[in-house]
């Protein structure tokens, strides 16, 4: 029996935990901040439910084969106690979150070869603790190494397209390019449809161009037309769709602004690349949200 603990059973974490719990050969524990009895997921193929063991304090936990962390990036520090309890000498850790800094925050806890960074494309929303709507089967991409391949195997029984990629860095920066443009929606508090305004689209392209320059300096293989691809993607989305940065700001929650835009500024500075547009949206959103 493979033992697995998922920290952060929100939209992504709850969906993944419920799917993994469908395999009787996996023992799934959920480490929650807000407790619940069952996971009930409306998936594209129908409803699934699961009744994993739910822990609410690290004192209940002990080392497992796999830890999956799916908290928002700003909740890394608050998950420290869970990692302390769950990570043993053989434990592998998968990091399911946005951004390009999956591995770094955990290197003091376990070596890089036991950490699996994951680019998640599973659109999901949580209505209440344990109650989630999964909009598409979606996909997860991880590096093509021993730990990545072992992670893929965990999902063999699910409809989620979990696969390895030989160039994880590029995948992560491509997702970042899409996400960094979404800061404009969070700034003006308007959903995706605002991108049909060409002036707004050009602001988004500018954010993405900076992301492309910094990503290339970091070693990602990013296409020249990525800014236009991102705009086409936003224009193809339902006009009323709201990205998570926008949703978090509108709800007065903390935001993944540093992971989505601040990182471009920080890494740009390291390479001597100017990123004034991303610096500006970070400053404006932070000031507006105060
Ligand atoms: N949602 C999507 O469609 C989507 C798609 C692709 C990527 N992502 C990325 O995936 C990551 C997770 O996003 P999400 O939408 O799933 O977020 P979410 O719905 O807010 O879920 C985060 C979960 O983490 C829990 N949590 C926070 N601190 C914790 C702690 N110390 N111990 C235990 N649990 C803790 C929260 O608890 P509470 O229940 O108390 O709030 C919540 O259940 C983010 O990086 C996001 O950008 C999301």
Instruction: Report the uncertain regions.
Output: none
Strand order of the largest sheet: 5-2-1-6-7-8-11-12
* Hetero groups: NADP nicotinamide-adenine-dinucleotide phosphate
* Helical segment count: 10
* Overall pLDDT: 97
CA-based shape: globular
Structural features:
globular, 290 residues, binds NADP nicotinamide-adenine-dinucleotide phosphate, alpha/beta, eight-stranded mixed beta sheet
Task: Please explain how this structure is put together.
The chain is an alpha/beta fold. 39% of the residues lie in helices and 21% in strands. The chain binds NADP nicotinamide-adenine-dinucleotide phosphate. NADP nicotinamide-adenine-dinucleotide phosphate (NAP) binds next to helix 1 and strand 9.
Briefly say what this structure is:
This protein has 290 residues and is α/β, with parallel strands linked by helices. The protein is built from ten helices and twelve strands.
């Amino acid at each position: 029996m493979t033992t697995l603990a998922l920290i952060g059973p929100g939209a992504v974490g709850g969906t993944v935990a419920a799917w993994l719990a469908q395999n009787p050969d996996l023992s799934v524990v959920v480490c929650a901040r807000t407790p619940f009895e069952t996971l009930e997921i409306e998936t594209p193929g129908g409803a699934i439910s699961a009744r994993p063991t739910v822990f609410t304090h690290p004192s209940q936990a002990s080392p497992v084969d796999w830890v999956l962390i799916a908290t928002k990036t700003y909740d890394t520090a608050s998950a420290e106690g869970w990692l302390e309890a769950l990570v043993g000498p053989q434990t592998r850790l998968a990091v399911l979150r946005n951004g390009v800094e999956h591995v770094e925050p955990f290197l003091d806890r376990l070596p890089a070869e036991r950490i699996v960074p994951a680019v998640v494309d599973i659109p999901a929303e949580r209505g209440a603790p344990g109650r989630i709507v999964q909009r598409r089967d979606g996909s997860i991409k991880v590096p093509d190494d021993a730990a990545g391949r072992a992670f893929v195997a965990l999902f063999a029984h699910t409809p989620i397209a979990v696969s390895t990629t030989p160039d994880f860095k590029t995948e992560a920066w491509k997702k970042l390019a899409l996400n960094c443009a979404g800061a404009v929606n969070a700034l003006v508090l308007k959903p995706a449809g605002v991108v049909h305004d060409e002036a707004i689209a050009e602001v988004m392209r500018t954010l993405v161009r900076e992301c492309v320059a910094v990503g290339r300096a970091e070693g990602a293989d990013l296409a020249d037309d990525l800014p236009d691809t991102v705009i086409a993607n936003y224009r193809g989305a339902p006009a009323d769709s709201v990205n998570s940065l926008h949703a978090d700001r509108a709800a007065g929650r903390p935001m993944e602004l540093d992971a989505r835009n601040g990182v471009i500024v920080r890494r740009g500075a390291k390479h001597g690349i100017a990123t004034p547009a991303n610096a500006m949206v970070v400053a404006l959103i932070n000031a507006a949200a105060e």
